[in-house]
Amino acid sequence: MNKPFPALCRDCRFQIREPGSDWNSRCTNPYVNAKNAWALANTGGNGNPAHTSANDESGRTSFLSPCGQSGKLWEPKESNHD
Predict the structure, then answer these.
(1) pLDDT value of position 81
(2) Are 47 and 38 in contact (CB under 8 A)?
(3) pLDDT of the residue at 1
(4) What pLDDT sits at residue 82?
(5) How does strand 25-27 pair with strand 52-53?
(6) pLDDT score recorded for residue 27
(7) H/E element, 26
C-alpha cells in the first residue's frame, strides 16, 4: 500500500463525521483512542464512544504521537465502487 502525502484523515478508514457537524470529524482508531483520556472517559452524550478529534490528532507533530501529522496509523477507506 502506498500512503499518500499528505495522508488526510478524510481518506482514512478510521475517520467518521462528528454528529451534528459538517466540517469536524472523529478518529475511531483504537490505538489513537487508547492514548486519549477524554475519548476513553466520554460517551458523547448518547452512550456511544466520543472518539478522538481528528483535528487534534492530526495537529500532533511529536514522533511519539500515535498517528499525528505523519499519519502513522492511516489506512485507506475501502472502496465500494469496484
Answers:
(1) 46
(2) no
(3) 65
(4) 43
(5) antiparallel
(6) 93
(7) strand 25-27
Continuous H helices in 1-82? 30-34, 37-41, 54-58
Total-model pTM: 0.80
Q: How far apart are CA 46 and CA 42, in angstroms?
A: 10
Radius of gyration of the chain (CA): 13
* Cβ neighbourhood burial of 55 (10 Å; 0-12, 13-18, 19+): middle
Given a contact cutoff of 8 angstroms between Cβ atoms, the answer to whether 32 and 57 are in contact is yes
User: Which residue, chain included where needed, has cell 457537524?
Assistant: 21
Give domain limits for the chain.
Answer: 9-58
- Ranges of residues in the chain with a pLDDT under 50 are 81-82
